[in-house]
Amino acid sequence: MTFKLYYMQMMNNHIKFSLITAFAISSLMISCKKDGNPNNLPSVSTADYVGKIDGFNSSDEVFPESLVAYWPFDNSKNEVKSNTAPGTSLNDSYIATGVKGQALRLNAGFLYYPTQFNAFKTDAFKSFAISTWIQISNNGSKRTMLFQLTRPGVFNGSLNFALNTQSFPASNVTDLKVQPTFITIGGGTQDNINTLRDAPGAPNYMPYITPPIGPDKWVHLALNYNASNGFFDIWINGTRAGAFPSRGTGNNNFKAYEPSEVIIGGNYNVIPGKSVSSDVSFAAMTGVIDEMRIYNIALPDAHIRALYNLGKAGK
Fold first, then answer.
1. pLDDT tens across 279-293, in order?
2. CATH number of the domain where residue 174 is located
């Protein structure tokens, strides 16, 4: 074979190989073309999210099926889910500049609902979340009860949403101690508090988280209790703040005792004619409350943050 023929045969083989390779690569690219929607999910339009916060138009869209009690305080003291009015109230009025609409102002006042709410019966109320906005000041002498699910004739209710406003003088606008408690199935008491726990890097480390407070400062507070794992969390302005959330299960689980009543802004000992002991550690509330929502589930973290962000936007 001459060199010329040999060279031409080699070039033909090279061209054939190149064409076969190119065809194979092209076929592979076509067969491996990415399917942008392999699960056939419905299309999503960005227009659906315009104006929303954390995916919601308003706080009313956060687990509405689990919202069992709601006080918007828009020119009414009624709990709107059951349309229950207080039996007694003291030193209460409304302000126009609430988080949403109006808000309730208490000046050494309270709201007392001498009613067994069906939503707060033992079998219906096991896990829970409470979300509310407040304006509050320290006073250096008395504690403040935001909300109590009472046990008639007993000082401590099944659920006590308490603030340690006695811990600092009124001039202190940088510290607020939140110390809620609940009564257990076994009859004991469990609590949590926002305080420093352990050193940074320790397994149970929790920094001291506290909001700025005062008569013109809105603060979002939430309690979140999960009966399945016994975790009892405090949230302040969208941040988990309680240092001791793990409260145990079994006999340590929360129990909503029956019968019960509801007091906003105090306990039995601040209501004339209703005292159940000589304890004077609490005073009727001085401050502002708005948008009190109670759920019969423990809310996911993202939804607690959403309630905070929506409230900041007046939604």
1. 999 999 999 999 999
2. 2.60.120.200
Q: How many CA atoms lie within 13 A of 307 on its CB side?
A: 32
User: How many other β-carbons are positioned within 10 Å of the β-carbon of residue 16?
Assistant: 10
Whole-number Å distance between alpha carbons of 122 and 255: 6
Q: How many domains does the chain have?
A: 1
19 within domain boundaries: no
Rounded to 5°, the CA angle 246-250-256 comes to: 90
Closest CA to 94 of 313, 314, 308, 290: 290
pTM as predicted:
0.85
Kindly state whether residue 48 falls inside one of the protein's structural domains: no
pLDDT band at 51 (very low <50, low <70, confident <90, very high): confident
- Residue 128: which domain range? 66-210+219-312
Q: 241 lies in a domain?
A: yes
33, part of any domain:
no
Phi, psi for residue 129 in degrees, rounded to 5: -140, 140
Contact in structure between 262 and 106 (CB atoms under 8 Å): no
Identity (one letter) of the amino acid at 52? K
